Every structure is written in C-alpha cells, then in structure tokens.
Amino acid sequence: MLTPDTVLQGRYRVLSQLGQGGMGTVYEALDERLDTTVALKETFFAEEKLRKQFEREARLLARLHHPALPRVSDHFSEAEGQFLVMQFIPGDDLSEMMTRRAGSFPADQVLTWADQLLDALDYLHTQEPQIVHRDIKPQNLKLTARGQIILLDFGLAKGQAGEISRVSTAASIFGYTPNYAPLEQIQGLGTDSRSDLYSLAATIYHLLTGVKPPDALSRAAALVNGQPDPLLFATDVNPAVAPEVSEVLQKAMAQNRDQRFSSAAEMRKALQRTEQTATVINRGEAQTVLFPPGAKTVGATTQAVEKQRTVAAGETTVVRPLAAGPGRRIMPWAISGIAVAVLRKAIPKITIWFKQVLLQHPLKGLN
Questions:
Q1: What is the mean predicted confidence (pLDDT) over 169-187?
Q2: What are the φ and ψ backbone dihedral angles of 258, each rounded to 5 degrees?
Q3: Residue 48: other Cβ atoms inside 10 A
Q4: pLDDT of residue 359
C-alpha cells in the first residue's frame, strides 16, 4: 500500500487511499505537472503476459470518450504495480446519497440517469474488443457538479486478463456485488453485455424503490423450490414507477440471459417507448443536481436536461446535449413586452394610412 506523499513517475503525488479490493487499490493523487487531482488505480500481476495485456487494455481505455465515463489519461508500471491514471470524480456515490436520503430518488431523475447509462453501455459494448463493466452498482455511480451521471470502475477488455485485472472496492472483493450480479456471473459461467444489462437494471431498481433487489442465487433457489420469484415489480414497491417501466426492468433481470434484451441499445429503446421515460426526455424534465458535500448550494438546485443527439466524431460516438443557455428560452413576459413596443411604433403609421383610405374611399353613412 502506498503512503501519502509518495511520488510516482516524478509526477503523481499520492494524497489518500480511496478504496481497496482483492486485486489492488485506488488512490486520490495530485498530478503535479498539470496541478490537477486524479484517481490512481493500482493493480498487481505476477505474470509478464498479464502485464503486457494490461498495457494493451490501458491504451484501449484511453481511447474512450463518452460523457458518462471518466477519462483515462495515462498508464505506467512502477515497482511491482501497474497503474491507470483516471479522471477524479469528487463527492459521494449514489449509494451514499441514497443512505442520506433514507429512501429512493425521484423516478424522473433515475430514468434520466438510466438513459445516459444505457448509452454509455452501448458505447462500451460496441468497442473492439468489447468492454464489459461487470460490477455496475450504486457505489460505482457518481454525479459531477453539473449533474452528469458518471459510471466508475469500468472493466477492461472482455477476456481472462480483463476479468482478473479488475480493481474492485472492498464491498465487491470477488469482482461483483451479489444483489446486482446476474446468475451466470455468480456461478462463474462467464459474462457478456447482457450481464451488464442485468446489473444496470438491478441498480435502477434499487434507485427507484430504495430497496435492494434479491440476489440471483436466492431467486434461483425459490424457483427450484417451487416458490414465486422474490423479485417484486418495482411499481409494487414504489407506485411512482410506471408499470411499463417495471416490465422493462423485469425483462432485463431475467435469470436466463437469453430472455433479456439483446443489447443496451434495445433496452434503451424499450425504456424510451414507455410513456414515463418519453415524457422525461421529450419535455426536458428538470434534473436535480446533487452536489458533493461542501459545495456551496442552497437547497436543491435544478437544471434543464435537454434531449440528446449523437454526433459522429472519428472512431467514437460522442453524445452531446443540444445547445442550451440563458438566451435559449424566451419568457412570456418578454414576448409581451416586445409586442407592446412594436405596436407603439406601428399605431401612428396605421392611423395615417387609415385616414388616407377614408379620403379616397369615403364610407357610406359617414358623409
């Protein structure tokens, strides 16, 4: 374990430890060259083959560009550790925020996050080679100061090295967290993109209801014993969740991966077809921005969430919000003021014109 003030590569000064798992540790560090805070993810490998695989995958991660993913800016080896340098996202994760709230988040807010995260998963899953996260959960989700959801701790490329090079938190020392992991991952049968859909659906379920979904093994045991599935519909736990949204989550959390959505894009479209999600996206639902502790804020702060468009940019697809700003929306009182000003200037001219018409074409009954 690295101690505070340890300097790596003559550049990165360790500030504190953020988390530790079975394969390594995550640190908060200062990049003294750029004077910015970064996250250092240290991983250990005993085999040279795995070291080289780590380097290839680190370069792959550095090419990723998506608003919901932290940027990877550097990788290096020092002593016996291999390090990834990533964007540091301050503040509490959604699990900590939910604990403080003592309940679920507003449904409209969660569905906005779900749409952003499914777009991020679609981006990861369509990379070559495919990138599978393998540990989506509220603890791996944070908000930026502007309210953008960020998916942390995303995995390396699919395959053996990708599996063992994961840096996990203490809560998921085995590379997954039971309440959010699909059956195939718990049983060691291998994961694919549909495994991430299960984990995301379980996470969204928890955020919408404030209740952790039952783990996949408990659900499987109930099925074997002829008992009903202990996974209740989200709308039965929280009536604010629309029934059609609950159905999407149930399908994504099917025990058999072949019965889930085939891709993140398909699941995203299914959610967008529900009236509750479509309303949020199309009308620019107000998004609650939950600032990290210590940030200057008064009560709850909101900002408009605009419908997003996808813009091709080289090798990647970047999601950018439509242009927005103080001048984008004209308030009704402003429109009224402009109309009054125009009429004041126009009335004298209209009066002169009307008199000329009367002189040329006198109206009957007025002579």
A1: 74
A2: -70, -15
A3: 8
A4: 53
Residue 287 neighbours by CB under 8 Å, 6+ apart: 109, 112, 147, 302, 303, 304, 305
The three-class DSSP label of residue 31 is strand
Q: With cut-offs at 50, 70 and 90, classify the pLDDT of residue 47.
A: confident
Q: How many whole angstroms from its chain centre is CA 132?
A: 15
Q: What angle do CA 239, 240, 246 make, to 5 degrees?
A: 75
DSSP classification of residue 284: T
In the annotation, is 135 catalytic?
yes
- What's the mean pLDDT in 63-71? 94
Choosing from 93, 119, 122, 135, the catalytic residue is 135
Residues 216 and 225: their CA atoms lie apart, in Å, by 14
- Quote the radius of gyration of the chain (alpha carbons, Å): 27
What tens digit of pLDDT does each residue of 191-221 get? Answer: 999 999 999 999 999 999 999 999 999 999 9
Q: What's the pLDDT score for residue 111?
A: 96
Query: DSSP states of 67-135 as a string?
Result: TTSPPEEEEEEETTEEEEEEE---S-BHHHHHHHHTSPPPHHHHHHHHHHHHHHHHHHHTSSS-B----
Cα 286 to Cα 276: distance, rounded to the nearest angstrom: 14
Residue at token pair 């004041």: 344
Burial tier of 107 (Cβ tally within 10 Å: 0-12, 13-18, 19+): buried
243 and 233 in contact (C-beta within 8 Å)? yes
For the purposes of burial, counting CB atoms within 10 Å of the CB of 220, is it exposed (0-12), middle (13-18) or buried (19 or more)? Answer: middle
| Alpha carbons within 13 A on the beta-carbon side of 87 | 19
Q: d(Cα 54, Cα 82) in Å, to the nearest integer?
A: 8
Cis bond upstream, residue 129 (ω within 30): yes
Write down the pTM of the prediction.
0.73
Q: Which domains does the chain have, with CATH numbers?
A: 7-87 (3.30.200.20), 94-283 (1.10.510.10), 330-367 (no CATH)
